[in-house]
Amino acid sequence: MDKSRLELKVGLFVLIGLALLAVLLIQFSKGTSIFRGTYTLRLHAVNIGGLKPRAGVLLAGVQVGSVSDIKLADDGRSVTILLNIYKDNKIYHDARFVIEQSGFLGDQFVSIVPTTNSLPILENGADVPCQEPFNLQEVARSAAGFVQRIDETAKKLDASVSDLRRVVLNEQTLTNFSVAINNMRSVSEQAMGTVNDINAIIATNGVEISTAVKNIESSTEILTNLMTDLQSGKGFAGTILQNEQLSTNVQAIANNLAVASSNLNRLGLWKFMWHHEPLHTNAPSASNEP
């Protein structure tokens, strides 16, 4: 056998073996297969963390595909993830797509979380949203900011306590507070003494006070009866109030008296009668007629 042809056959055999080995490695490492049909889903996420192409896609923990490509959107604010899903795996439109991580430092993968599995089923080229992965560094930055805010708050609280001790809890303020307490105590003692005196007066003159109260009650009852009689038209005053003609006459008399008093005051007669001065007139004296 020709030596060159033998080398060619050996080389071809080795090449085919390496190709088959590579295919087997890819199939067993990422769960993909060139012999199984797939369809494509387009995921849109703001941040994909450390997700890489050929990462696994798991549905309820079972691998149903892989990440074929990752592209940055034209606006530069989102990322498009292309998934190759095996055709024999149906994914419903209400499923949630989340980027998760295997363990604490493991590789990231796309997890599909089914919910109610309501129709329709996602078709080839469907666009679905994806939840960004848990970002430990972002949490650490947030925690650092939170600790810094707590530190600033503690400093402000410490400054407030210092101001409180300097302004309120100084010696002069405490002295004034003590004096105010003593004054309140003196006022309370005086009030207690006054109450005791009132109790003693009530105990000593209890009979007189009871009699006075009864007299007030009797007077009140009499006034109530009088007002009732007036309203019902009993008695002279009640008759005046109830009789419209009589009330009008009394009012007319009062008006006439007011007018007469005003005339007397204007003509000087009222002043004469009040000071008892003699009235001087120029009228001739009356002669005695037979």
Structure description:
This protein has 290 residues and is an alpha/beta fold. Helices cover 55% and strands 16% of the residues. The protein is built from 7 helices and 7 strands, in the order H-E-E-E-E-E-E-E-H-H-H-H-H-H. The chain has helices spanning 3-30, 136-167, 171-204, 206-232, 235-242, 244-267, 269-275; strands at 38-45, 56-59, 62-72, 79-86, 96-101, 108-113, 126-129. Strands 5-6-2-3-4-1-7 form a 7-stranded mixed beta sheet, with no helix packed on it.
Features:
alpha/beta, 55% helix, disordered C terminus, seven-stranded mixed β-sheet, 290 residues, single chain
Give a quick rundown of the structure:
By secondary structure, the protein is an alpha/beta fold. The chain has seven helices and seven strands. The chain has a seven-stranded mixed β-sheet, with no helix packed on it.
Secondary-structure blueprint of this entry?
Layout: H1 3-30, E1 38-45, E2 56-59, E3 62-72, E4 79-86, E5 96-101, E6 108-113, E7 126-129, H2 136-167, H3 171-204, H4 206-232, H5 235-242, H6 244-267, H7 269-275
Parallel strand pairs: 1-7, 2-6
Antiparallel strand pairs: 1-4, 2-3, 3-4, 5-6
